[in-house]
Amino acid sequence: MTTAPAPDVVNGVEQVRRLLTPVPGPRSRELAARKESAVARGVATTLPVYVERAGGAVIVDVDGNHLIDLGSGIAVVNVGHAAPAVVHAVQEQVAAFTHTCFMVTPYEGYVAVCERLAELSPGSHPKRAALFNSGAEAVENAVKIARHATGRDAVVVLDHAYHGRTNLTMAMTAKAMPYKSGFGPFAGEVYRVPTSYPFREPAPVTGEEAAARALDAVTTQVGADRVACVVVEPIQGEGGFVVPAPGFLPAVERWCRQHGVLLVADEIQTGFGRTGRVFACEHEGVVPDLMTVAKGVAGGLPLAGVVGRAEVVDAVHPGGLGGTYGGNPVACAAALAAMRTLVEDDLPARARAIEEQMLPRLQAMAQRHPGIGDVRGRGAMLAIELVRPGTIEPDAAQAARISAACHAAGVVTLTAGTYGNVLRFLPPLTIAPRLLDEALDVLESAVAESVA
Ligand code: PLZ
Fold first, then answer.
1. Which of 69, 20, 31 is nearest to 406 (CA)?
2. How far apart are CA 352 and CA 346, in angstroms?
3. Residue that finishes a domain, picked among 323, 344, 365
4. pLDDT digits 0-9 by tens, 356-398
5. Average pLDDT, the chain
6. Cα(20) to centroid of ligand 1, in Å?
7. Quick one: average pLDDT of 440-452?
8. CATH no. for residue 172?
9. Full DSSP string of 199-210
10. I need a surface site. Which of 165, 215, 258, 410 has the fewest CB within 10 A?
11. Atom of ligand 1 nearest to the CA of 294
12. Beta bridge mates, 131
């Protein structure tokens, strides 16, 4: 690690794994039963332990179990649960005022977050930003801006993409179950083209070739002059931590520039240090015209944003963008603290250290178990893809078994992937190396007992 050692206690939570009951325990089971009769069935839970407290990389449930969190609330608490700087900033802001609506009587925090997003995002050109509540809302607004700025309608997205659950973003998301099935009709003028998914190519395809394949589909099936924007996740998140072959993103960027098409990078899952750089686009020197952010931006408070070229964002007339809660002052205070922590504690370097610690162990597991077909990712966004040994046939049951074994042993893991066969790891970037090692020991046993 490049920075000070992680503390042993965060927010009153000891940074240890400790199980007092089976997982989930009796009090969690009671709450799960109450959920059944109160909460919509459509809202499912991955691991039904009910949380009482969280700090750093540890979640404490209502039965007193201490679990190591390798999910970060889906890549949100990059700074760790209840990071002291975030907690302090939120408490101060809550006591001052909680809401006025920025569109009615504005406040400094909103402006400061937009300034910070402009500084941290790729490219030194003049930028503008706008703030929203959720990732899906940010993606919707990026499309609104791109359409307004170009006067064009078509939106291009990729196979395996995930952009949200609202009507437009469902159309942009690839996977039918559980995100889209039964929820149509979907928004129009959204076109899906092949992506670069190295592990699933029948024969090796370079990034440039994969881009040519995608852009040929756009040219022949849509027409470049009708396209407002191409929206890409630099590493696909829900789609299975798919890292495109090198050269794919730069080739898409070049094509966009040639054809007056705006490149929108959806950095909602990849942003804020997660992949070892502040934003994942930086790994290949890609400078998007617009970028969407959410999740890690505010260390656990709901905030999202669009940041991009000033002339593009400012094409929209005054009053054309907004919402009652977008850029809520409490969320902005949290975001300023989280972004300060990101820079001051060099969290991208921590993400790179996590990769150095995890990758060799994941690769060693793959050597021993042919059921692990691929190990991939960047920084603290790593995954293993489970297959029937010797094939690329997805094996979601194996991924589910490993995940369940990790949960039972007190490690929070998530699955992902179009085929549900990817086990993904998103630890808080502040996790102590010894705690991460312990989580990897648990994973190793889970793999040994669950995988071919
Ligand atoms: N774009 C790249 O990863 C959210 C979704 C979990 P919201 N990913 C987690 C679920 O099952 O709903 C995400 C993302 C990318 C957009 C979004 C959407 O962000 O804040 O969930 O709306």
1. 69
2. 10
3. 344
4. 999 999 999 999 999 999 999 999 999 999 999 999 999 999 9
5. 97
6. 33
7. 93
8. 3.40.640.10
9. GG-SS---HHHH
10. 258
11. 20
12. 305
Which residues have a Cβ under 8 Å from the Cβ of 352 and sit 6 or more positions away?
A: 276, 379
Looking at the fold, whether 35 and 91 belong to one and the same domain comes out as no
Whether 325 contacts 99, CB under 8 Å:
yes
Question: Does ligand 1 lie within 6 Å of residue 233's CB atom?
Answer: yes
Asked if 38 and 134 sit in the same domain, the reply is: no
Domain of residue 405: give its range.
Answer: 9-69+346-451
Q: Which amino acid is at 319?
A: G
- Per-residue confidence band for 451, with pLDDT thresholds at 50, 70 and 90: confident
Total domains in the chain come to 2
The CATH code of the domain that includes 392 is 3.90.1150.10
Q: Assess contact for 102 and 113: CB atoms under 8 A.
A: no
Residue 6's pLDDT band, with cuts at 50, 70 and 90, is: confident
pLDDT in tens, 147-185: 999 999 999 999 999 999 999 999 999 999 999 999 999
Please say which residue of 322, 344, 366 terminates a domain: 344
Task: Please give the pLDDT value at position 3.
Answer: 57
291 lines ligand 1 (CB under 6 A): no
- Would you say residue 46 lies in a domain? yes
| Å from CA of 295 to ligand 1 middle | 8
